[in-house]
Amino acid sequence: MSRPFPPPAFKIGDLVVDPPVLQAPMAGFTNAAFRQMVREYGGAGLIATEMVNARGFQWMDEHTTEHPDRLWGVAEEARPLAVQIWDNDPETMAKVGRRLVEEYQVSVVDINFGCPVRQVTEKAHSGSYLLRTPERMFQIISKLVKACAPTPVTAKIRLGCSPESINCNDIAQVVEEAGAAALTVHGRTAKDMFRGHADWDRISEIKSHLKNIPLIGNGDLDSAEKVVHAFKTYDVDGVMIARACLGRPWLFAQAAAALQGQPVPPDPSLAEQRDCMLHHYTLVKDRFGEEKGTVLMRKFACCYAQGKYGARMFRTHVAKVSTAEEFYHVVDEYFPLTVKEKPVSAQ
After folding, report:
1. pTM for the whole thing?
2. Catalytic residue of the set 115, 148, 245, 303
3. Is residue 78 part of a domain?
4. Can you give the C-alpha Rg of the chain in angstroms?
5. Percent share of the chain, pLDDT over 70
6. CA dist 199 to 54, 169, 186, 331, Å?
């Protein structure tokens, strides 16, 4: 299938998403520091927070404790900004959605119906677990839409709970009928977790089951070339980049350039990538303090090193740091500054 190219901007409610490339909400990663890194490089049409537990947020609010760290920076940072929430109770979701609109003035409230993690699914009967109960999804979405109006509400789903129970086409219709302003689909089932490959043909098929709302595809987009291919090949209005951007916040700018037929900016040099990581560390440390910030930065540092020669040695050492002095020492000694090389065959 040949699609219009370059792809036009699209709208979520009254919000124009331009370029039509979104940053995925990712638990434990897309905090305010990471979002600032993405903004500094540019190229993302819509940025999202980590997913927020609606019930936990409500409890904190009722007990006048500090709001969740996952809402760090939301009130002050630039717009547009989407906040993703999860739970299985329509009333709780509606209350929290309204607070996000009134107090935080967010651009979009997104509902997580896609998380496959057992703590969210089997223990809390939320996330992708709800794909087996479309009627509950309808109740959650419709109540949230009413509570958040005129701020748009969106939903993120997977293809189904398992390869044997793919129901994304039916779920898409439920999402639209309940009043959601856009649908994002990750091209795997919950049972797949992140194994195998995202099924973009399945994602594309969903478009014919929607009447008016935009469809956003998600899964395996790790280069500007793959973003271009997705728009040229599949029937989607937007794409969402997830894990591939964690150590590469410049990926959105590369994708945006490619979509406009412009030269794709090269990756920063390895020294520049190291400096980017150190800037990221400063943002995290300033918010959480040296000890907590350093521990939190371990996983981000591993993302920046991924795919580089010497990454394993760096990961081994950075996983143990707990002070700024230790972090800077490990970076100076072990952060990879050469590209990953293929092993030379024995003569």
Report:
1. 0.92
2. 115
3. yes
4. 20
5. 93
6. 30, 14, 8, 38
